[in-house]
Amino acid sequence: MRLILMGPPGVGKGSCAEYLKTHYDIPHISTGEMFREAISKQTEIGILAKVYIDQGKLVPDDITNELVKERLKLDDCKKGFLLDGYPRTINQAEKLDKILVGLNTKLDAVINLVADYQVLVERITGRLLCSQCGKVYHIKNMPPKVEGVCDDCGGSLYQRKDDTYETIMKRLKVYEQQTKPLLEYYNEQGNIININGATTVSVSVNEIINKLGGY
Ligand code: ADP
Ligand code: ZN
Fold first, then answer.
1. What one-character-per-residue DSSP string does 185-196 give?
2. Are residues 68 and 50 in contact, defined by beta-carbon separation less than 8 angstroms?
3. Residues designated as active site
4. What CATH class does 2-115+165-211 carry?
């Protein structure tokens, strides 16, 4: 199964991906996660990307495209993949098409998660992440059993630096201007599946699996 997960920040792409990668036994490729890892390791890409990410801007296409191209070449992607947060611009989508032609493969579907802005802002401003395993919590909606501590691995929880109200507003604007036009791009290819992202993760995931049933 070769899938793209699309949708605005906070719609639940990462949370849904956690289930989908297990269900379809495919690698979860999140460019946001890859950048965060690069930042924590202070690699060249990480140092570059941090400047953009902290401001709520997109990392330049060339850097992002190269990162994904190399990742998709790895052996584990032969059985399929789940792209999360990529592509985010028309340039990236066109590049992805070329990468896939080069790999002699095609997308099965583009999953578009939908929720209104009020829901997104509420979710992102309360979002907490585990510093060790990456599990996502929410201060009100999905609190950990012990404050500040991951239920699964005991790691400490933190708030992403780009999850402040001001940066979220910028990210939502970037989404509107640069990523939303991709829906039209993929609509023309005829493989978009729209999913309600405003409910719970398990409801969204079930809807996705049901709608992908024919694939
Ligand atoms: P969210 O979907 O909540 O914005 P992500 O973890 O997907 O979170 O992305 C975090 C940040 O990483 C983005 O705001 C952007 O700066 C950068 N980023 C992630 N994916 C891409 C991409 N495909 N192109 C450019 N920048 C990206
Ligand atoms: Zn954890």
1. HHHHHT-EEEEE
2. no
3. 13, 88, 127, 160, 171
4. alpha beta
pLDDT in tens, 130-176: 999 888 999 998 999 999 999 999 999 999 989 999 999 999 999 99
Confidence of residue 86 (pLDDT cuts 50, 70, 90): very high
Helix boundaries (H) for 42-89 = 44-54, 61-73
Best residue among 13, 72, 88 to mutate for probing ligand 1's pocket (most ligand atoms within 8 Å of CB) is 88
- Taking the centre of ligand 2 as the mean of its atom positions, its distance from the CA of residue 36, in whole angstroms, is 16
Across 91-120, b (16+ Cβ under 10 Å) vs e yields ebbebbeebeeeeeeebbbbbbbbbeeebb
Q: What residue spans in the chain does CATH classification 3.40.50.300 cover?
A: 2-115+165-211
Residues lining ligand 1, CB < 6 A? 9-10, 13, 31-32, 35, 52-53, 56-59, 64, 85-86, 88, 92, 162, 171
Closest ligand to residue 130's CA: 2
Residue nearest to atom 9 of ligand 1 (CA): 32
Per-residue confidence (pLDDT) for residue 215, from 0 to 100:
59
pLDDT above 70 (res 129): yes
Residues in the chain: 215
Q: Which ligand is nearest to the CA of 156?
A: 2
